[in-house]
Amino acid sequence: MSITDSPPRAGTRTARRRRSSDRGFNRGFRWIAVGAGVLILVVLAAVALFLLWQAWPALTAGGDELAAEVPRFPADTSFLGYVGPLVFGTLLAAVLALCLAVPVAIGIALFISHYSPRRLSQVLGYLVDLLAAIPSVVYGLWGFLVLAPVLTPFWLWLNENLSWIPLYGGQASTTGRAMATVGVVLAVMILPIITAVSREVFLQTPKLHEEAALALGATRWEVVRTAVLPFGRSGVISAAMLGLGRALGETMAVLMIISPGFSYSLDILAAGQHQTIAAYIAADFPESTGLGINTLIAAGLVLFVITLAVNMTARWIVARRKEFSGAN
Amino acid sequence: MSAATASTTTSDATERTRALLTTADSGRRRTDRAMQVLIWCAFALAMVPLVWLLWTVTTEGIGRMSIDFLTLSTRNIFGGDPGGGIYHAIMGTLIITGIAAAISVPVGILTAIYLVEYGKGWLARSVTFFVDVMTGIPSIVAGLFAFSLFALFLGPSAQMGMMGAVALSVLMIPVVVRSCEEMLKLVPNELREASYALGVPKWLTIVKVVLRTSVAGLTTGVLLSVARVIGETAPLLVTVGVTDSINFNPFDGRMMTLPVFSYRQYHQGYAPCPAGESASCVADIAFQNAWGAALVLIGIVLLLNLVGRLVNRWFSPKLR
């Protein structure tokens, strides 16, 4: 507390005072806080650098060398040919989950922001957030032991009657260990994040817009359609992208449910066709050594780059919206 | 002639307008009703997996609950032996998550303080942006990062609890920052200004006024972020490995954790029992163990969530 005890002399007063408020504990505390902020940037950079460092031997090695040293590495291909089907499987799972989750999430967000009783809305929000709190390994257990047997007859029916649609073709799995089941489980897992972000945006809709629509005789749905949804569109898009990021990186649920395979097949009801990067790493990492580990980390680096791009785009949309939205 | 026609059309139009205005528009109302039902259904649809999952885990896991299950490890337990328990996994989870929290909470709260109290210019903007981006890092990538980091010092075969804690804190820090930032922003500026007016330096204002006012919210944020990472499986599978023994030392050797235990048991599948079911050999004991561990894990997560919400509700100052 000895910071302002000496009266500053005239002339140097302003300079003194400015400096005197940033001395001793004040300065130390500020530097600690700034340091914590910088540390986060350093950590993110370190994640990228360390992954790159460990992945480098696999990225620079030739296809033959990798095939010789890495188990389950397909012959006559390069690293790209090896990681390609995995990227395809990852994207397929994520897009499938997104298609299922986004309409439901928008419905839930609207329900909480505009339809539910005001007093209940916070509690209902907690309930949806609980879906995010449940560990992914529990989703995996439930998805494989409980959900898959329930969904299998439905998948078989789709396969029998609608197999002319490319997605439902092929030989349907009789155990439900297919991409379709994974898509359903992932959709449940990413519901909370999409709901939470969309809900925030819907709640920011200017009250005047809604009241103007009501004054013109609009029904509640017309208010939503003409005032809330257009206002929240970019927010919903970024929410969907954040959900996409989550779905891309999800490991355990995929690992425990899917029966893995490496192909570019679109048959989401068939077993042994797809695998995602994250699940592949988790499955093979404990048994890998040497160049095998480098290869897996290189696959992880690919996943990191994909999710980073998706998340940065999503956050960029949100940030841009914040700047230009005149409503707040 | 033409005037008469004009007057009839005018009166027709008036009639029609009047009819439009006085009778209800059934089409629009029907759409409104249908959308209302759809939106209620969307919410109900989301509750189905939540209730179903909690119900399954409870009913499947409750049968395995006993003092033995909670206080023994699975050392020397093979095949369908229904003995053993998850004590080693519970301790591993608590130790690793505890270390992760000890790393993440100071860094997270200090970063939140930086963003709210000091943050200006490009540095604050990029920290905010990259914290948001960091919340989207896949958990397995965090595990690979911890592996690579420790491989630099200890070689590629190292596996220990500390690596898992580092991986978890990479996942936890952004969550802590986000929630604590929101809480610090809720502290009214009048309180800070009143403190400055009394001649209190800025750092003391932050410690004694800002943090004191928001301590309940910060506790909630920390508890919820612990609940977020305590169920992470993939990074621990990569960095900490599996063991059947009790290991309290996070710097030495593998540790078991609840989610990894659950996964391992699931992975084992059915045990071959020679003479059918008996007291010493239960064929689906691994699945029972997996559900039991899942029940304990979900219990911890729900408890953390509940305590977090209640702390915020009961102890946060009323700012109205």
Automatic annotation (TrEMBL), chain A:
Ranges for domain ABC transmembrane type-1: 87-314
Protein localization: Cell membrane
Superkingdom of origin organism: Bacteria
Primary localization class, coarse: membrane
Gene3D superfamilies linked to this entry: MetI-like (1.10.3720.10)
Cross-referenced InterPro entries: MetI-like, MetI-like_sf, Phosphate_PstC, Phosphate_Transport_Permease
Membrane topology: Multi-pass membrane protein
Keywords: Cell membrane, Membrane, Phosphate transport, Transmembrane, Transmembrane helix, Transport
Signal peptide (UniProt feature, chain positions): none
Transmembrane segments: 28-53, 86-112, 124-157, 177-197, 251-271, 291-312
Entry-linked NCBIfam families: phosphate_pstC
Its biological purpose: Part of the binding-protein-dependent transport system for phosphate; probably responsible for the translocation of the substrate across the membrane.
Family statement drawn from the similarity comment of this UniProt entry: Belongs to the binding-protein-dependent transport system permease family. CysTW subfamily.
Protein name: Phosphate transport system permease protein
TrEMBL record, chain B:
Residue ranges constituting the ABC transmembrane type-1 domain according to the UniProt record: 90-308
Keywords: Cell membrane, Membrane, Phosphate transport, Transmembrane, Transmembrane helix, Transport
Transmembrane regions: 37-55, 86-115, 127-154, 160-177, 209-230, 290-311
Membrane topology: Multi-pass membrane protein
Statement: the UniProt record of this protein carries the keyword Membrane: yes
InterPro entries: MetI-like, MetI-like_sf, Phosphate_PstA, Phosphate_transprt_permease
Cellular localisation: Cell membrane
Primary subcellular site in the record, as a coarse category: membrane
Domain of life of the source: Bacteria
Coiled-coil stretches: none
Keyword Oxidoreductase: no
Protein family: Belongs to the binding-protein-dependent transport system permease family. CysTW subfamily.
Role noted for this protein: Part of the binding-protein-dependent transport system for phosphate; probably responsible for the translocation of the substrate across the membrane.
Protein name: Phosphate transport system permease protein PstA
